[in-house]
């Protein structure tokens, strides 16, 4: 009988229980879906790293690493294995001479290339094992010969297999979008490189040591300081970029659920409180008929358990199935892992179970007071609420308030829980909307900042490694350009280290600079400038001294910081050619910038990038984040409509007597509708205002996961606030219109009689 009663009550309060179902479903759906997406990426990468035995540390030395050096490092406590190898920058004998980073390895035991097709790679086999994505982009097959040129010599090998490398999960490029057609990697055994005594410039290390500072000291002593860089996984470009991407998705997945759960619980409390209050007589009758308080309580807990359980189960099932495929297509254009599939985790089920438990607890605390009454007490009509407003009523301010405000103040005072639900619901909606619109605006600002304010060139021509001075001068004349030098560097100060970039200009004007507030500044030509994010991370200010060196070079250079600039990408150091040469470092141009479009082929140029190419690359890189933002906006709108509609249902149901009384004394339906609308707008506006700082906080949480290479200024734009307000207030207006017909058709006799 109690189950039939529960179903009948749920049907009579269908809108409220549907809203509870939707909120619980969305919370579990987003949590399990986005968690399944980033956990799937994390698992795919972890399995990839394990299968390939990815190195924990990379050591680079321009003077070379001997067998004795390798043995000395391997003898360090905690080091389990080491392997020597070398990377050569080569050009493939194909159209446009694409660049191939060719590795020759000694034993193939660490950072092993994972075979996708063809023969397994072995140090005892002759042949070339080629990057699968490069091969697919170029239409190369296993068994075909490929010629690579480097250092004035050529090497022709048969492609024995197509591979993936754990070090190239992400392949950096000038346009940000990996250019698989123009850049790749390959592996060959050192025994077949054509040299009797191969030169090894890298040492791969497997270690259980987690204190990398201590390990670097030990490695430095073992190598007698003959090394140019000490890289951990977190500094390795492919590993760190992919890790930062999953961290962004994880933070986004942890933003949604708490808001939905909170609103669902408020809806549950409000619904169950009203339901039980309206059923005092029924509860008293059941107790008089012999039903125990425990049995009745369990029955009312079912009102929370069944919809929340069904929503949680559906969310756990559909989340990992529907959400991850939305992100994988855009991400697979950037990242290379063997599998793209969601991963299931016990936290999904804990989230679902926890949500059901919270829903049941909310229902219990909302109903326990009434359910504890005896049969006689429950059958007695409930005493009306006493309003403590006498002091307020006697003030001049109260007398000056119009009828609308006085009436709404009384109603809000009588229904604090319902009013709180409206405020918290609007707060959650506004926080999500502010976060979404602000992130969208900030991403657009980054693009404008980098490609509209800092980059003043139209074309960037990347120079080949062996470009001659004559080639360079002819190019500068042809495009009326200016040279720049870009190198990867390590910076250290105050006990910290930062992998960054060095940008050197030759008195040009096509690469501008901005301060921390994005105001244009001129950097000093006779000193070294440091980017704001690196300075903040290393706790460096103008006048402090930092040390830096180019990757692979063993000499550290100490420089006083003359200025600090801010840039959205390419964190690191900037200076002029004359100052660099004064430090004893050769200025070797790596690119030419031109203010005009240059499409012709030039000798000594490996690739040509236009501003349109760079902005398209940016758009592609941010596609997954923008998709997250769209989902966030859609979620916030769903939350707004659901909360406000549920609030409207509750308000109309609880105020039927008041509405009928107002109509009897002459208030028109339009006037009454305006009365209800003013209350909804008041509570919604209050929640919106309080939600703005929470939205800004969420933006800062999101920007904190952008990674070391990006510097986003979390700013709140007026348009973000306006759009968010329009959506929330628009939803309030739309919901209010839905109830206008109910007001016009209200049965005055039954409404007035039903309250007696």
**Computed CA radius of gyration, to the nearest angstrom:** 33 Å
Please give the count of helices. 26
Domain count? 4
β-sheet strand percentage: 15-25%
Structural class: alpha+beta
Q: What is the makeup of the main sheet? A: 6 strands, mixed, barrel
Globally, the shape reads elongated
The helicity comes to: 40-55%
Quick overview:
The protein is α+β, with helices and mostly antiparallel strands and 756 residues long.
Give structural notes:
The longest helix is centred in the N-terminal third of the chain and has 39 residues. The strands form three sheets. This protein has a six-stranded mixed barrel with strand order 2-3-8-5-7-6. Strands 12-13-19-16-18-17 form a six-stranded mixed β-barrel. The protein folds into four domains: about 200 residues, no CATH class; about 170 residues, no CATH class; about 200 residues, no CATH class; about 160 residues, no CATH class. By secondary structure, the protein is an alpha+beta fold.
List the helices and strands and how they pair.
Blueprint: H1 2-12, H2 14-52, E1 57-60, H3 67-74, E2 79-92, E3 99-105, E4 114-118, E5 128-131, H4 132-138, E6 145-150, E7 153-164, E8 183-189, E9 202-207, H5 212-222, E10 229-232, H6 237-253, H7 256-278, H8 280-288, H9 293-322, H10 324-332, H11 346-371, H12 375-379, H13 390-393, H14 396-400, H15 403-414, H16 416-454, E11 459-463, H17 469-479, E12 482-493, E13 496-505, E14 513-514, E15 520-521, E16 528-531, H18 532-538, E17 545-550, E18 557-565, E19 572-576, H19 577-582, E20 591-594, E21 605-610, H20 611-621, H21 623-654, H22 656-664, H23 669-703, H24 718-738, H25 740-744, H26 748-754
Parallel strand pairs: 3-8, 5-7, 13-19, 16-18
Antiparallel strand pairs: 1-9, 1-10, 2-3, 2-6, 2-9, 4-7, 5-8, 6-7, 11-20, 11-21, 12-13, 12-17, 12-20, 14-15, 16-19, 17-18
């Amino acid at each position: 009988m109690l189950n039939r009663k529960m179903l009948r009550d749920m049907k009579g309060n269908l809108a409220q229980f549907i809203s509870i179902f939707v909120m619980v479903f969305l919370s579990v759906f987003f949590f399990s879906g986005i968690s399944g997406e980033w956990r799937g990426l994390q698992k795919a990468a972890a399995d990839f790293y394990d299968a390939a035995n990815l190195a924990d540390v990379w050591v680079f030395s321009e003077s070379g690493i001997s067998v004795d050096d390798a043995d000395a490092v391997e003898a360090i406590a905690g080091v389990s294995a080491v392997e020597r190898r070398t990377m050569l920058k080569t050009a493939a004998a194909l159209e446009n001479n694409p660049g191939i980073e060719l590795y020759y390895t000694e034993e193939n035991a660490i950072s092993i290339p994972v075979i996708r097709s063809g023969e397994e790679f072995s140090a005892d086999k002759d042949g070339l094992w080629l990057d699968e994505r490069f091969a697919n982009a170029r239409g190369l097959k296993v068994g075909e010969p490929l010629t690579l040129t480097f250092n004035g010599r050529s090497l022709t090998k048969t492609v024995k297999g197509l591979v993936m490398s754990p070090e190239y999960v992400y392949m950096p490029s000038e346009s940000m979008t990996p250019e698989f057609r123009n850049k790749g990697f390959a592996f060959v055994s050192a025994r077949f490189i054509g040299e009797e005594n191969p030169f090894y410039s890298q040492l791969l290390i497997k270690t259980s040591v987690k204190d990398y500072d201590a390990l670097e000291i030990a490695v430095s002593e073992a190598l007698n300081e003959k090394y140019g860089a000490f890289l951990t996984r977190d500094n390795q470009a492919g590993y760190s970029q992919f890790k930062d991407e999953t961290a962004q998705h994880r933070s986004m997945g942890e933003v949604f659920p708490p808001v939905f759960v909170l609103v669902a619980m408020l809806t549950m409390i409000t619904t169950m409180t009203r339901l039980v209050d309206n059923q005092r007589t029924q509860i008293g009758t059941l107790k008089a008929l012999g039903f125990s308080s425990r049995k009745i309580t369990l029955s009312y807990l079912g009102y929370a358990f069944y919809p929340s359980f069904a929503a949680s189960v559906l969310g756990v099932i559909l989340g990992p199935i529907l959400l991850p495929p939305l992100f994988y297509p855009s991400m697979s254009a950037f990242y290379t892992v063997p599998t793209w599939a969601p991963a299931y985790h016990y936290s999904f089920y804990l989230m679902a179970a926890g949500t059901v438990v919270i829903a049941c607890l909310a229902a219990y605390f909302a109903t326990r007071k009434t359910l504890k009454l005896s049969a006689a007490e429950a059958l007695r009509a409930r005493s009306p609420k006493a309003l403590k407003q006498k002091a307020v009523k006697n003030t001049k301010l109260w007398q000056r308030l119009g009828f609308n405000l006085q009436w709404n103040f009384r109603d809000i005072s009588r229904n604090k829980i319902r009013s709180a639900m409206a405020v918290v619901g609007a707060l959650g909606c506004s926080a999500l909307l502010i976060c979404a619109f602000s992130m969208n605006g900030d991403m657009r600002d980054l693009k404008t900042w980098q490609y509209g304010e800092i980059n003043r060139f139209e074309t960037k021509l990347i120079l080949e490694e062996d470009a001659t001075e004559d080639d360079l001068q002819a190019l500068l004349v042809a495009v009326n350009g200016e040279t720049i030098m870009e190198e990867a560097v390590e910076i250290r100060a105050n006990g910290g280290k930062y992998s960054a970039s060095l940008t050197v200009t030759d008195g040009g004007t096509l690469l501008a600079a901005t301060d921390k507030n994005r105001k244009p500044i001129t950097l000093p030509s006779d000193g070294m400038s440091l980017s704001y994010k690196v300075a903040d991370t290393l706790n460096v200010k103008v006048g402090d001294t930092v040390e830096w060196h180019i990757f692979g070079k063993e000499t550290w250079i100490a420089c006083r910081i003359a200025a600090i600039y801010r840039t959205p990408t390419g964190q690191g150091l900037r200076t002029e050619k004359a100052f660099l040469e004064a430090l004893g470092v050769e200025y070797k141009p790596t690119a030419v910038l031109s203010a005009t479009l240059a499409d012709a082929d030039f000798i000594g140029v490996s690739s040509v990038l236009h501003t349109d190419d760079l902005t398209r690359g940016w758009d592609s890189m941010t596609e997954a984040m923008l998709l997250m933002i769209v989902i966030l906006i859609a979620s916030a709108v769903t939350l707004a409509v659901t909360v406000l509609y549920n609030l409207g249902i509750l308000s109309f149901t609880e105020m039927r007597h008041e509405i009928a009384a107002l109509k009897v004394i002459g208030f028109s339906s339009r006037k009454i509708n305006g009365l209800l609308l003013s209350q909804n707008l008041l509570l919604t506006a209050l929640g919106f205002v309080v939600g703005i700082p929470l939205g800004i906080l969420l933006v800062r949480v999101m920007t904190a996961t952008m990674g070391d290479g990006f510097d986003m200024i979390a700013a709140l734009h007026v348009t973000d606030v306006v759009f968010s307000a329009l959506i929330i207030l628009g939803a309030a207006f739309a919901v209010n219109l839905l109830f206008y017909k109910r007001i016009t058709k209200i049965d005055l006799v039954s409404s007035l009689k039903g309250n007696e």
